[in-house]
# Entry
Amino acid sequence: MEGELDVPCTLWRAVLTATHSNSETHRTATTPSLGLRPFVVVCDSRPNRAQEISRVVREAGGEPLVIETKSAVAQIKCSPMQCLAVVAAGAPAACPEMHALHQLKQKGFKIIAYEDGAKSWSLRLKCLPLLAGAVQILDSTAGEFGRKLHDHLEEMLYLEAKNQDEAQRIKSVMQGLGMVGESASMMDVFRSVIRFSVLSDLPVLITGETGTGKEGIAHALHRLDPKRGNGPFVAVNCGAIAASLAESEFFGHRRGAFTGANRDRKGLIRSANGGVLFLDEIGELDPPVQGKLLRVLQEKRLLAVGEDRDIEVCVRVVAATNRDLAPTAQQSGFREDLFHRLNVLSIQVPPLRERHDDIGPLTEHFLQKYRSLTHGTGAEVGPEFLGALRLARLPGNVRQLENLVRQALLWRRTDAPLGLHDLPVDVWRQLSEPVEDLGAWQTETKRPPELKAGELAPHIKFVLEANDWNLARSLGDCERQALEAAMTRTRGNQSEVARLLGITPRSVYNKSTNTG
# Structure
């Protein structure tokens, strides 16, 4: 156990060192470790000003991606290689510009806003772009504008590059603990796990739908805890304990305390002393036990059944629930004081339908986990199998996905990559239901089969209108979008992008540095 704990803790110490380092010697590292210059969206309807902004972006270490019309903002996507934006704020209180700022913020961009004469705006007007999502508002007519913009961009590009390196370290730590995820929402969860793990004496409340991996997160908190990692991990399903036995189960009893108490019982809380007590589905806990648990959390002491003197305990409580236990929830039936005591540190685990980027890595993880079912022949995932999993409704979340992969391995009849035919009938029925709009196809890289060539016309027209009917710019826009989609799919792997698009790695580099 101790040896297993050393590796992730050592890795995370390296993450903390990199995160808190402010050394200027690292300040020039503005380019992510992927080897490509990150794109910076430049949103300005004035070509001359956009050209000058683009020059500053290049000098700061980025590659400008110019948008001259606000309607084109809807087409832009945020990704690790494209997450910063420099946006003209427009006239004070101008709705279109504020809407563009808000849209980019909603997509996840970090934004620097600017406008001519912004320095003379009132405080009220300066607040508008900040409320819309900008992190800074600059005056583009000020003499120091170019220098300030350069410095802000360089700082943000540096931090994003460092964040990507940190994310790789975090993923390594969590993979060592059996936790898999690459989506932005799961990276936030992983960061919370690592940050909370060192706060050894504070309780944690984990919320999320059934099957999202709440117990795995509790295990990770325990394993990474420098104080309790070598102590016991006691998991309890609160819904499975009969109300009549709950007090004895949790707090223990002395021999003869009641009929049938033939020996002393330590109880679950004392069994977890020096470690972590994981209370799964804590919303099912009987109200009287809730009250006694509250005292344990407050006083760090408990009174066993039949005892006349309480004893001190040192245990960290990690609770999980798929219910809304907040006091505002209607008829939650949960003590408000206990909720607030448990909710000191909270982790919300998103459902799988909100993080499709995790389905591929999770599927590969389960293939490795159940490789013994392949009788030594190994197994690969075909594109149809993965595409079906991304489109299927999975109310059981990660647990259901794991079961589907395991079933497919058990029932497959050939050594060919897993395909659509390896999935169960209920998934086929789901996928055969009529698709109302193309949005349901999520991140498919091929055109959906029911989309006919003539139906592309409205989309082509939209791209042309977004580029003022300039054919060269429209084609360049499409090429940039295709390159970005390939970058996202391959997580920035240049060789994989080249293979996917059928071009050379050199062409990938040239296109990524010459577009915009």
Remarks:
- The domain at 453-514 is CATH 1.10.10 (Arc Repressor Mutant, subunit A).
- The radius of gyration is 27 Å.
- Confidence is low (pLDDT under 50) at residues 1-8, 14-34, 436-454.
